[in-house]
Amino acid sequence: MKTVKLYDKDSHIKDFTAKVLDCREKDGYFEIILDSTAFFPEGGGQSADTGKIGNRIISDVQIIDGEIVHYSDGAVEIGTTVNCSINWDKRFRRMQNHSGEHIVSGIVHRLYGFDNVGFHMGDGVTVDFNGELTRDQILSIEKLANEAIYKNVEFICEYPDVETLKNLDYRSKLELTEDVRVVTVKGYDACACCAPHVYSSGEIGIIKILDFNRHRGGVRIHMLCGSDALEDYEKKYENLRMIAAELCSKQNETAEAFEKLMKDHGQLKTEIAALKKEITNLKSSALGDTDNCILIFEKEIQMNDLRKLVLSGAEKTDKLCAGFVGDDEKGYRFAIASKCIDLTNKAKDITAALNGKGGGSAELLQGNASITKKEIELYFNENY
Fold it and tell me: d(Cα 103, Cα 352) in Å, to the nearest integer?
């Protein structure tokens, strides 16, 4: 006996009663077969419904060898009649997204002749078309799709007879000849689809295209509809509200305010770079000629500036100039330069003494050290 597909008869059934035809244990789950079900099994790009059969939790529904199998966390008695309920919020959100996708795909097909060659619903909705669309075209598609919502057009889900099907112009990814369920959005689309849909487009509420990108010679659209689109807007609104407050700007003027902030930031970076260069030059000038090695310790300095400083210091001594940035707790980064000592031959000994790693050229070494400032000073004073 085949299970009656209640979701085909009425997509808005939330609760129902059904007779348990079979219940068998498999791989840690129980597979339940009902005489009728409003649980939609995974298919057509839409995930399976979840909910309850009796007091058992249903986590998945699949069609296996022609049977609609409900995967349960426990057994139910065969032959009994059970109360069942689906997770309606999740189902309705999926219907909103899926029905919205049909409207968008229908508009794209009608205006540009492109086919929907890929559809997925997860955290969001992605739709792949086998042709490229511009940003302006996508904005126009979104506007037309929402106009369909304002018109509250009807969704008709039916199984046309063979003769009707032959003369029906509808979209389909597969060559279908029998038991073809066609979902028609009056004035916008007709498409073969097995999934439950809204009664009319007004239930979708809103269609929002979030982004798009080139994909396999065509375009992939990222979109959300209904409650998911509203929640996405609420999150983005909160982010925008916080950003606007930080920028001391109106919410609709944050782009201009951010552009000004980045311009000011760029100017400040230029000024800071000039000041750092001046400081480095002053520190270099302060280094006097000496017969000893020169040791420099800095709390904060860019490695590029530290390299310039030690290269300058190497001009003031016949030994070496070693610069360190950091502290005893977190360790140091170093740059060591010399005009008279081939540092290539000394690199292994120096990095070992500094309990670190590094490398470089005959004139300049750089790397990390993990010993204290006192130990660094002791090593260089005793060996150079």
Answer: 68
pLDDT at 122: 86
Q: Is 206 helix (H, G, I), strand (E, B) or coil?
A: coil
- Supply 106's token pair: 């229908």
Handedness of CA 353, 359, 365, 371 (dihedral sign): negative
Q: In one letter, which amino acid is 91? A: R
Q: How far is CA 111 from CA 100, 141, 264, in A?
A: 17, 9, 45
Give the integer Cα–Cα distance in Å for 62 and 211. Answer: 31
The single residue listed with the structure tokens 């139910």 is 76
3-class SS at 359? strand
Mean pLDDT of 43-68: 95
- What interhelical angle do 135-151 and 88-112 show, nearest 10? 120
Cβ pair 218, 132 in contact under 8 A: yes
pLDDT in tens, 279-326: 888 888 888 889 899 999 998 888 999 999 999 999 999 999 999 999
Calpha distance 278→178 (Å, rounded):
81
Q: Which amino acid is at 330?
A: K
196-214 tens-digit pLDDT = 999 999 999 999 999 999 9
Element spanning 105, H or E: helix 88-112
* 254-274: average pLDDT: 93
Find the mean pLDDT for residues 38-51: 95
Cα–Cα dist 17/30, whole Å: 19
Contacts of 199 (CB under 8 A, 6+ apart): 11, 12, 154, 155
Which segments of 316-383 are extended strands (E)? Answer: 321-327, 331-337, 357-360, 364-369
| CA neighbor of 74 nearest in space, from 40, 32, 35, 41 | 32
Supply 45's token pair.
């790009």
Beta strand 294-298 pairing with 321-327: parallel
Mean pLDDT of 66-83: 96
* Separation CA 80–CA 146 (nearest Å): 46
Task: Tell how strand 36-37 and strand 4-5 pair up.
Answer: parallel
* Longest Cα separation, the chain: 103
Q: pLDDT grade, residue 334 (50/70/90)?
A: very high
For 164-195, write each residue's pLDDT tens digit: 888 888 998 777 667 899 999 999 999 999 99
